[in-house]
Amino acid sequence: MIVEWNPARPKTKTTAFIKESLEAGAIISYPTDTFYGLGCDLFNIKAIKTLYAMRGLSEKRPLSIIFKDIKDISDYAVLTDFAFHILKSTLPGAYTFILKAKRIVPRLLMTPKKELGVRMPDHEVPRALVNLLGRPIINTTAKSATQEYISDPREIERYFKKQVSFVIDGGIIMGEPSTVISLVDDGVQLLREGKGPLTDLLRD
User: Fold this and answer.
1) pLDDT tens-digit readout, 166-180
2) How far is CA 160 from the centre of its chain?
3) Is the pLDDT of residue 204 over 60?
4) Phi, psi (5° rounding) for residue 126?
5) What is the pLDDT of residue 203?
6) Can you list the domains of the chain with their CATH numbers?
7) d(Cα 47, Cα 52) in Å, to the nearest integer?
8) Cα angle, residue 59 at apex, residues 58 and 60 outer, rounded to 5°
9) Do the strands 166-168 and 179-182 form a parallel or antiparallel pair, or are they unpaired?
């Protein structure tokens, strides 16, 4: 199902449907500032395991988590003054930051070093979804079995069929991956260069 939803002018019935679906453990697809994402409630382990299976991913590979704001991030990750300054200067944006996780985060979503990837996209839909649900959502990119990005919401609907409850239409997105940066131990380590600019981040 393709759903039209504008967080700036949300329709009551559509908004209620989205909220109820996420609360019930639905896996949904939505536009972000990079590609279309696939996601579900952070605390629904059954849905998270289904999401791993859908994407053909090992459960040893942690997925990123979408937050609505930096305060939200601080509830789930350790934010030193150094990390807070970096996040404040770059987010919302096309970055995935690796931080130390707090105990509230499900173990399935941590690395063996108890780290997690945080996202705060520069796109109103995913942040509004988190606000609507009242807690963060898990995020992975909508890709085919051959690891090709699916840019058209109608292709996502056809490809995943009933595995995805609905796709929020954001038009065709021909994006590029987020820039992945570790801020663990108050250092800046580039793990993947992507859409997020590096101009200020990698300065000594």
Assistant:
1) 999 999 999 899 999
2) 18
3) no
4) -60, -35
5) 59
6) 2-192 (3.90.870.10)
7) 9
8) 85
9) unpaired
What pLDDT shows up at residue 58? 87
Q: Which residues pair with 166 in a beta bridge?
A: 28
* Tokens matching residue 104: 């509230």
**Which tokens in the block code for residue 77?**
């990750």
The strands making up 36-41's β-sheet, listed across from edge to edge, are 2-3, 166-168, 28-31, 36-41, 137-141, 64-66, 115-119, 95-100, 179-182, 189-192
pLDDT in tens, 14-61: 999 999 999 999 999 999 999 999 999 999 999 999 999 998 888 888
Cβ-in-10-Å burial (0-12, 13-18, 19+) of 203 comes to exposed
Q: Exposed, middle or buried by CB within 10 Å (0-12, 13-18, 19+), for 48?
A: buried
CA distances from 40 to 110, 179, 188, 189, 204 (A): 16, 22, 29, 28, 38
Q: What is the pLDDT of residue 108?
A: 86
Q: How many residues does the chain have?
A: 204
pLDDT at 59: 85
pTM across the whole model: 0.93
Q: How far apart are CA 39 and CA 172, in angstroms?
A: 18
Q: What is the average pLDDT score of the chain? A: 93
